[in-house]
Amino acid sequence: MSTFWARSLAIVLIALLLSLVVWPFFGPLGVLLLFCLLLLGVLGFHLLQIARLVRWLQQPSLDTVPESFGTWETVYSQLYQMVREQSRSQQKLTNTLDRFVSAGEAMPDGVVMLNDKDRIEWCNPLAMRHFNLDRKKDVGQQISYLVRAPDFIEYLRLQDFSHPLTMRVGRNQEMVLSVQLVPFDVSRKLLLSRDVTQLDRVQTVLRDFVANVSHELRTPLTVVGGFLETLIDMPTLDAELTRKYMGMMQTQTQRMHRLVEDLLVLSRLESNQQSVPEERINLPQLLQTLLVEAQGLSQGRHQIELKVDGSSWLIGSHDELHSAFGNLISNAIRYTPEGGMIKLSWSEANGSGQFAVTDSGIGIEAKHISRLTERFYRVDRGRSRETGGTGLGLAIVKHVLMRHQAMLEVSSELGRGSRFAACFPPQRLVLAGIPI
Q1: Domain 279-431 is classified in which CATH homologous superfamily?
Q2: pTM
Q3: What pLDDT is recorded for position 8?
Q4: What three-state secondary structure class fits 163?
């Protein structure tokens, strides 16, 4: 302001000097006219600067701040500094907002921001996938119009934020979500969603596992207990009848023993964190052993043949692979009618190896194939028990192969037989006689 008064005083002094010069020639009227012209000039200058300022305010920009001199130079300079500082603050806020949005986009859970009317203000990509939302079209829409699950609508109505809701979504209800509302200011709240489908499947498998084990053990225990009660209640023991009952009890006891053994093997495979032993397995010798065991198990009821195309040995655990291959063979024998054909084969191609068991048995429907390696999963429960299976053989095979970086391939056609193949990667093969 001191600069403003100094410039104003300078203008007044200049005007007085001019009036002293004009007075001798034009008198009082000339001086008055001079003052009027000076006032009009100053007023015009200020009106021009005001017009420039109004034009700039219509489209304000740091690069187009007007320039002038005198008092307006100070005004424009301060305006430039203010706009520059505002621009910096706005850029800082924009960067902060972008970081928050990026953090929301990268969150491992779905996030939907709702206003006080439960309308969508923003959502991240995972929430779009969970609730089938379109961020461009659905912003401003009621969340209850887009997620129509009755349990979810009731959850919104109750506004109970203390616990999450578990719900199924998707066309076939194939995805399980855990959702929870979280208020974060007076009117807004977050809807958080987490995909717990895999956890739900694990819990289902665990429940089925406990139920299946209980069922598998209950039947033989009931049989054994019934026979023992009968023998105890008999006043005199008939030797032939006792021998018959004892044989049946022994069969049921062996069944329970096989079940417990398979459970222990599967538990050991699932919990074993140690690496697979690096043993050199004489594959031709192992295949000959498997052939003899298959013939003994079949008791001449099937045609069994072995074909070997390759001379490599395997690297891994001899006992685990023997068990896995034996399970594939015993399954083929159990589910192939008498007189059927069972082929054992080993082949090599592109450095990889494959052990396959092909049978001409009853076959498997395509809908069952993906679930065959689940514990206790049976295509035909009655037939499985008749053949003496525990329902754990293919689960053991899967875990053994996983420990050897191998995979199980299954192909089957109902009524025409099945083919189970264990495929090994090149790093699991070694030429005979060459050390590891």
Answers
A1: Histidine kinase-like ATPase, C-terminal domain (3.30.565.10)
A2: 0.52
A3: 62
A4: coil
